[in-house]
Fold:
Amino acid sequence: MRSATDPGTAQQFFRLSRSAGYVLVRNLWPKVVGPEIARRTEVVALQERTLRVRVADQRWMRVLHRMQRVILGRLAQKLGAVAPNQIGFVEGPLSSPPEDVSVKSSVRLRDAAPPPERVIKAAESIEDAELRRLFIESAARYLGRRRSV
Structure:
């Protein structure tokens, strides 16, 4: 039995209706880009072979522009010949705001001792609160490993 992401199945699915293709791509998006990017983006349309994606802000739009080939490659792996061959990004507010990952993140500081004050001080220059938190957690885990070796 073929899965919903099998290229043959996807091709049949797309032939049935354009809206079905959009729904399939929209549902695959978080698996293709990962949870952090999925939280900051929203698939808004599939026009012919161009995927339209709304991005929360300019910084993430630049990140996605750099990742565009990787994203298209992953979509092609999942969808085969019917995958979008380009992505058009538009900046704007998402229909549902990003959820607070400080509570839901799978990465927790509890697994490591707090990093030195100099690391926390350096992290203050990171504007994005979530990226700052992830940096501090990563530094704590990294430094914790070095201490235990």
The first strand starts at residue 41 and ends at 47. The beta strands are 41-47, 50-55, 86-91. Residues 58-79 form the longest helix (22 residues).
